[in-house]
Amino acid sequence: MLEEVKDMPKKAVENPGGEVNVLKIYAVEGFNLELLKRMVDFSSNIFGESGTREWSLVPQIRHGNVFVLKEEGKKTISGVAILMRDWDDVDKAYLFEYAIAEELQGQGLGYHFLHSICENLKDQGFKRVSLTVDTENEPAIRLYRDKLGFRLVQYRRDEYGPGHDRYIMELELAPARAN
């Protein structure tokens, strides 16, 4: 059901409030109703009504890439990333949803989680990752642009309705390492 992708680097989890022991990244390969509910609850807590629901999460798990960040041996989810292949550009993955639990934000976990996912995408053969971000979400923009190297490629006014402007950002992935 959950296939371990990798441990978070020790420096990312050394002292996040003293509550987290070992965070691991898992690719969601299957699911049960309990996991599905936990993922939906996590998304709803972060994004409210815009969060992922069961009906959209099931096909994402079956046909996309879904990653969770969670403490080893615990059920609580600390982060979620949902990606899909771009229909018009099969070398590009689109980051559909990405979040770190609010109480763990600002500690470098977002960087390490997304960096590890990008490494995994390179290994899968993807060449680019794109995403949208609220034009007023400065912490996310700094993470994507300044820490991970995404570049702003487009501004979309009213992307999700009036007053919901978005930046489209894209990251070129280096070629996968030869074995």
Automatic annotation (TrEMBL):
GO terms for molecular function: acyltransferase activity, transferring groups other than amino-acyl groups. SUPFAM superfamilies: Acyl-CoA N-acyltransferases (Nat) (SSF55729). InterPro entries: Acyl_CoA_acyltransferase (IPR016181), GNAT_dom (IPR000182), MshD_Acetyltransferase (IPR050276). CDD domains: NAT_SF (cd04301). It is an enzyme of class 2 (transferase). Keywords: Acyltransferase, Transferase. The keyword Plastid does not apply. This is Acetyltransferase. Its EC number is 2.3.1.-. It comes from Acididesulfobacillus acetoxydans. The lineage of its organism: Bacteria, Bacillati, Bacillota, Clostridia, Eubacteriales. Signal peptide: none annotated. The keyword Acyltransferase applies. Residues 26-174 form the N-acetyltransferase domain. It comes from the Bacteria. PANTHER family: L-AMINO ACID N-ACETYLTRANSFERASE, PUTATIVE-RELATED. Gene3D superfamilies: 3.40.630.30.
